[in-house]
Specification:
The chain is 28% helix and 24% strand. The protein has 268 residues and is of the alpha/beta class.
């Protein structure tokens, strides 16, 4: 019987810690240049507003302190339409006053179960907050007399990715091509030489760590996971790929050895 009490106490302690970690955001920095005049980006990902335990006030505080040129948000916001009002409130609050671009994730698609009109209405409501939604399209951003192509690619699982459409509107004289998409496996399919930097999420960094990479071997089928690529910075298909651990959570509001992440990126 004492062993049962010890086990239960350890289990409860673990759950308490995992709940704490789910709200304990970490600011990670990726510097591709030492030039302070370069482009400064903050990437957020996988907000999953239903199980978001990082306070929006904390997210906003980091954004205001860093004062980025651009905000990138790389997919997975809701799990069903009922979550839309809460997500829009959070989105409008954390992005107000900042040039923000986002793409959709697989959860955003499955939330509508094939209801394309509902999905379109969701996208419109996001745009009404002042946030730019990039769906296989490119916009040009200018800083210090340099042009940067910002390319938004649809989520790989949606089967709606259209590289030709997205890349056709790239400015040919741009200094670099920067892409955002949800699923990192898209790096394996992007035409070589067309994208310099790619920012994704989706994997949560392994939301709850399991020994022997069990989560990635059993619960995920993505190719990069099988290659051991699941978080952080990598060079894939000639592309500088960064995989953000995300802010929110799926299934349960718990994390273990994979703290929520806000990424601050400096580009030349």
């Amino acid at each position: 019987m004492p062993y049962l009490y010890i086990f239960l106490a350890l289990l409860l302690s673990a759950l308490v810690y995992m709940r704490f970690e789910a709200g304990f955001v970490k600011v990670d920095r990726i510097d591709f240049t030492k030039d302070k005049k370069g482009v400064k980006i903050i990437q957020l990902s996988d907000i999953h507003v239903r199980y978001l335990k990082v306070r929006p006030q904390k997210i906003r505080q980091v954004i205001e302190k860093e004062n980025p040129d651009l905000l990138f948000i790389t997919g997975d916001y809701i799990d069903k339409p009922a979550h839309i009002p809460l997500f829009l409130n959070v989105l409008a609050y954390i992005t107000k006053g900042y040039r923000t671009y986002l793409c959709l994730g697989n959860h955003d698609y499955t939330a509508f179960q094939g209801d394309l009109k509902g999905l379109a209405a969701f996208v419109r409501s996001i745009r009404e907050t002042g946030v730019h939604v990039l769906r296989n399209e490119t916009v040009c951003f200018d800083k210090n007399n340099k042009k940067y192509n910002l390319i938004g690619l649809e989520d790989l699982r949606s089967k709606n990715v259209d590289f030709e459409k997205a890349l056709s509107s790239c400015s040919p004289g741009a200094f670099m091509n920067i892409a955002l998409s949800h699923n990192p496996d898209i790096a394996l399919e992007i035409p070589r030489g067309k994208v310099d930097y790619l920012f994704c999420g989706h994997f949560h960094g392994g939301q709850i760590w399991a020994p022997f990479n069990l989560e990635f071997k059993v619960l995920r089928y993505e190719k990069l996971c099988k290659m051991g690529v699941k978080r952080g910075l990598h060079k894939i298909n000639g592309i500088n790929l960064y995989i953000n651990r995300g802010l929110g959570n799926v299934c349960v509001p718990l994390r273990f050895l994979s703290r929520p992440e806000i990424t601050v990126i400096r580009l030349p």
